[in-house]
Amino acid sequence: MFDKGSYRTEKPKTDNGIRKIPMNESVRNALKAEIHNRENVQSVTLDGYTDFVFLNKKGLPMYGTAYSVDFSNMIKKYNKHHKEKLPKISPHNLRHTFCTNMANKNMPPKALQYIMGHKDITTTLDIMHMVQRNLLKLLWNH
């Protein structure tokens, strides 16, 4: 987080927020390409962390609020130049989309709970139930 002219880290809402997220080879390659192709990288060590992946235009680490603003601006810029518009979405919407897609692919609830960092399995199960309910609506309407 960037606050009062300096960076600081914040603990996640729960201990479940600290986890290792699996990634496939295409994600790993995309992140490596991002790191390899960027310019103007500033060397920053923050609470022992270095080598941040996502940087701002000044080469400094991105933080939540700035990332959300930049994401919104990217969508606005895209919509300005394309006939088919993107909906108004946020990085948090992408998190929900990922969770929904994994539930649709029948990922075991405990695995999805871990990846999403949900403290309580009922949060994950609620999302999975919503996915199943939406799927049933789709089937009944066709």
- Assign an overall shape: globular
Provide the β-strand percentage band. Answer: under 5%
Run of helices and strands: EEHHHHH
Q: Which stretches are low in confidence, meaning pLDDT under 50 for 5 or more residues running? A: none
Helix/strand-derived category reads mainly alpha
**What strand order characterises the main sheet?**
1-2
Distance between the termini: 47 Å
Arithmetic mean of pLDDT: 86
Q: Please tell me how large the radius of gyration is.
A: 18 Å
Which secondary structure elements does this structure contain, and how are they paired or packed?
Blueprint: E1 2-3, E2 6-7, H1 25-37, H2 64-81, H3 91-104, H4 109-116, H5 121-141
Antiparallel strand pairs: 1-2
Commentary on this structure:
There is one protein chain. With 142 residues, this protein is mainly alpha-helical. 52% of the residues lie in helices and 3% in strands. Strands 1-2 form a two-stranded antiparallel ribbon. It is globular. The protein has helices at residues 25-37, 64-81, 91-104, 109-116, 121-141, and strands spanning 2-3, 6-7. It is built from five helices and two strands. The model has no long low-confidence stretch (mean pLDDT 86).
Essential attributes:
142 residues, globular, two-stranded antiparallel sheet, 5 helices, mainly alpha
Compact summary:
By secondary structure, this protein is mostly helical. It is 52% helix and 3% strand.
